């Protein structure tokens, strides 16, 4: 995901969104962290949704990324 994010941020975000609900919390956290590379306003809607995640750590990371 990280390599794809560097080449095509939008495609990486789409891929992440397509599997997001089926991923374990630990994986969602790692995947969110991969968004740091090339973070842009286009990521905001996805990160806004992650603020409602059932994992406190995922919510916290999403908030951190939104404040960057």
Note down, in words, how this protein is organized:
The protein has helices at residues 2-7, 9-19, 25-34, 44-50, 56-66. It is mainly alpha-helical. Helix 3 runs parallel beside helix 5 (56-66) and helix 4 runs antiparallel to helix 5. Helix content is 66%, strand content 0%. The protein has one domain (2-66). It contains five helices and no strands. This is HEAT repeat-containing protein.
**Distance separating the two termini:** 20 Å
Helix/strand order: HHHHH
Tally of distinct domains: 1
Radius of gyration: 11 Å
Oligomer type = single chain
Query: Percent of residues in beta strands?
Result: under 5%
Shape: globular
Major beta sheet summary = none
Helix proportion range = 55-70%
Give the structural class: mainly alpha
* Poorly predicted runs: none
Number of helices: 5
> Could you tell me the number of beta strands?
0
User: What would the average pLDDT be, to the nearest integer?
Assistant: 95
Brief overview, please?
By secondary structure, this protein is mainly alpha-helical.
Topology:
Layout lengths: L1 H6 L1 H11 L5 H10 L9 H7 L5 H11 L2
Helix pairs in contact: 3-5, 4-5
Key attributes of the depicted protein:
single chain; 68 residues; mainly alpha; 5 helices; 66% helix; globular; HEAT repeat-containing protein; DUF5691
